[in-house]
Amino acid sequence: MNREELKEKYGKKRVPHEWRKTDKLTALIVTFFGSGMSPKAPGTMGSLAAAIVAYPMALVILLLSDPSWSRTTEWSIPCFSFYWDGFFIEPFFINAALFVFFAAIPFVKKAMKDTGTEDPGWIVIDEVCGIFMALAFVPLEFIIAQPWILAVAFGLFRFFDILKPLGIHKMEKLPGAWGVMADDLLGGLYAGIVIAIGFIIAIK
């Protein structure tokens, strides 16, 4: 067995960097700043990156809305969140999820066309959309005061994203980039609803 055969049999397998076939801006966006380039569990890495980024996003929005707000402030329902009988709807993360959804479509479409792939694992901008949608049912102040809720949102979203119950898998059948993005948006919605139900139970 020659050197090349030994290398092929026992050498470390290289992960194909398919994203190199598209332009840098597209790759940066669809991999969410490289988090999707992880050789292992890129979807999990993308979701984790989105959950981590959500914390400073929530903090910045709170500070911009009320400069006097600080982490020591007693938690209360923010004036810019909708609240009804224990059910929260946070406009900021709903808007963020929808913005990511529609803004990412042309980039996902281009990435798949350039690389000749269909929903490759390294495209994780859809996971970002899902995480933001899951957090749309959590008040911003609660995210800052109780950051463990980010782990809950992450875990619930990954559950729905991996198992794809309740019609989520059907969303994948939508054409092209729409199918890539839509199933994660719905998965995030289901995760958010579970979180909302948890809030209702805890308050009552």
Describe the structure using short key phrases.
2 strands; 9 helices; two-stranded antiparallel ribbon; 204 residues; single chain; mainly alpha; 63% helix; globular
Task: Describe the structure in your own words.
- With 204 residues, the chain is mostly helical.
- It has one domain (18-67, 80-203).
- The chain has 9 helices and 2 strands; from the N terminus they run H-H-H-E-E-H-H-H-H-H-H.
- It has helices at residues 3-10, 24-30, 42-65, 91-115, 125-134, 140-145, 148-163, 168-171, 176-203; strands at 82-84, 87-89.
- It has a two-stranded antiparallel sheet with strand order 1-2.
- The longest helix is centred in the last third of the chain and has 28 residues, at 176-203.
- The model is unreliable at 71-80 (pLDDT under 50).
Number of contiguous helices: 9
The H/E string reads HHHEEHHHHHH
Oligomer: single chain
Taking all Cα atoms into account, the compactness measure Rg is 19 Å
Globular, elongated, flat, extended or rod-shaped: what is the shape? globular
Strand order of the largest sheet: 1-2
Strand residue percentage: under 5%
